[in-house]
Amino acid sequence: MKWSALAACLAVFASYGANAQTAGQLVKGASDTSNVLNYGMGYNLQRFSPLTQINKDTAKNLVPVWSYSLADDRSQESQPLVYEGIIYLTTHAATMAIDAKTGKQIWKTKVEYPPETPRIVCCGINNRGAALFDGKVFRTTLDANVIALDAKTGKELWRQNAADVKEGYSMTVAPLVADGVVLTGISGAEFGIRGFIDGWDPETGNHLWRTYTIPSPDEPGGDSWKGDTWKHGGGSTWITGSYDPELNTVYWGTGNPGPFDSAVRPGDNLYTCSVLALDPKTGKMKWHYQFSPNNPFDFDAVAEMVLADMMVEGRPTKVLLDANRNGFFYVFDRTNGKLLAANPFVKVNWASGIDMKTGRPIEADVTTDAREGKKVMVHPSWFAGAKNWSPMSFNPQTGLAYANTLSFGTYYKTRSVTYKAGAWYTGLDRSFSPFEFGDAPRGHLKAIDPMTGKAKWEVPSDIPRYSGVLSTAGGVVFTGELTGEFEAFDADSGKKLWQFQTGSGIEGQPVTWQRDGVQYVAVTSGYGGAYSIFSGDERLASVPTGGSLWVFAIRPQ
Q1: pLDDT tens digit sequence for 81-99
Q2: Residue 365 is among the residues annotated as catalytic for this protein
């Protein structure tokens, strides 16, 4: 072999190595300030950065560095990933690699869909992001496929179908790579699916295991379903789980049961509205906790399961934090699932509290009446919950969770419903509008004490925020408004430090990293999620659609 040919081969291998994310790098993702390797800014999903260049004093000097058009007018809820100066980003329709310094597109791979796909998606056509591992980019698609792309070229390496889109299954979830396995969840509880979590081989795409969130009659928990109701029991898994490498345990939230009419499915309906602790190699369940047994109110529990180390009763404890859609903020010992705290963080009227001995909610008359088919006003809203999918941040330095909470209730009433494959299967009475907002602010950005549920401070918003939250060691909290403003707040006081109008509503997940001595913060902008579809909020009529990625840094002085 000629030396020139050998040198070319070595160059290829060297460049591939620079793009091959290792398991060790993923484990250290939360402390890697040069890259953003994990969904949630780390396996712990804390969405916290130790960077300090952007801080309380300098945030006012933030300016846009560049903006990239996503050529897409759907809701943009994706989280960017960053590795070695390249941003990897998804929409429902494409995957992109972008030069993080210049904003120039490196490659773009489009997703082609069958014509029936958009009709089966519940609450907005979107995608929440990708996973990186071993030189590959992993993503899911609306027609329930899992895809691996070459990180250098965008070329498709393998594709596997997880479920039949015609039966109401879909995927918007960002995959999770844990212990060498690609994990994915599923959407579609509103269409009577049977939920699950899958494990895939990252190299070949071979299907390794499936853990159903709805047990069959011969499986543990199967007796919590009556007759054949388990076959269409819901239990979606559409938000990415967290991972503790030391315990080798994945923590994944599950969604609402189907239909909403709980009278037709007596029993606790395991494992809906729960957190599952799983072995990533096998999918075997280590423990579970159900937040809302026999839930009638769409209080799904898919949202982020945040991992932290906290002092509890004077002892350092490995905890799991969950600001649940049902209105209670939960703290668990994640080594064994023991409940340590459960307190309301918004107005709650469906339960008076959580029984700390049994872990079960102490249900109120509102819930009893709802099961009897009466029309009730539910707080928090059955439609949106106390906090919707929008991920919160936990700052280990302040010990506070920063979350976009919702401050309205909704009317609820059921009707009979018959299952039909691919059709809505909710059992909700739609003869009236569920919304009665009033004049109060519809949402608050809150700094919450996890052990008490009480807010150190809160910032109201007339139109609720549906963006993710990012906090930093610089004492800054980033989030965004549906009217387009990207915002920075003081983590200690809630004082607004800065804002920038991005041109469309923000429903994305901000991230930050540092390269060549400069700290950057980025967020996707693009309006069109569940609130815009269902709320009828006329104040948003003038907010343009159109997706973009914005990157900011401190203006040189």
Answers
A1: 999 999 999 999 999 999 9
A2: no
